[in-house]
Amino acid sequence: MQAKTPEQSKTTLTDMVLPGETNPLNNLFGGELLARMDRAASIAARRHSRRIVVTASVNHVAFNRAVPLGSVVTVEAKVSRAFKTSIEVFIDVWIEDRESGNKTKANEGIYTFVAVDETGRPIAVPEVIPETDLEKERFDAALRRKQLSLLLAGKIKPNEATELKALFD
Ligand SMILES: CC(=O)SCCNC(=O)CCNC(=O)[C@H](O)C(C)(C)COP(=O)(O)OP(=O)(O)OC[C@H]1O[C@@H](n2cnc3c(N)ncnc32)[C@H](O)[C@@H]1OP(=O)(O)O
């Protein structure tokens, strides 16, 4: 299986915020943004693996800035690291200024997908070769995040989370 770069999975979704998608403060509803992020990230995971992928966990989401009604929102997803059958995807969310066209980072998230066969059984995926400094940074920290997610899900024991333990040694 040939390794791939994060750039090969890059997926960009651009859309507006419409009235039916907002909260009472007229900002984008969190669940709507999560759905957009899930959609972009699953396409990135599919591009990386060329398999059916399912969302296994949402590891981290930070709603740092509200996204007002009418905003043009760009959701950019890229695979940061792949393990045996699981794929971590980073999602960056940008808002575009109407007049200047400049983009400001509004939110980010990290999702984990698992590639599965037609019967839903996990199946092996290609490795990731990070290229840029940011991609290398995200790649290096991915094992720690995987162990944290598995620990919180009760799927590994604390003494198996070696990367997390190393933070405190
Ligand atoms: C519930 C919903 O409808 S959400 C909507 C869409 N999502 C789904 O339908 C997914 C439903 N869930 C599933 O099908 C299964 O739980 C799966 C396929 C995600 C995982 O199945 P499991 O039996 O746990 O498989 P297994 O233990 O072999 O793990 C497979 C991989 O997932 C990883 N994984 C499983 N759970 C998690 C988690 N919570 N966080 C991070 N990684 C995880 C494992 O570490 C393993 O990765 P690796 O092979 O790269 O080392």
From TrEMBL:
Task: Keyword check for Hydrolase, yes or no.
Answer: yes
Molecular function via GO: fatty acyl-CoA hydrolase activity
* Pfam families named in the record: 4HBT (PF03061)
What are the alphabetically sorted keywords of the record?
Hydrolase
Q: What class of enzyme is it?
A: hydrolase
User: Quick check: keyword Ribonucleoprotein in the entry?
Assistant: no
> Which EC number applies?
3.1.2.20
- Family affiliation: Belongs to the acyl coenzyme A hydrolase family.
Annotated protein name in UniProt: Acyl-CoA thioesterase
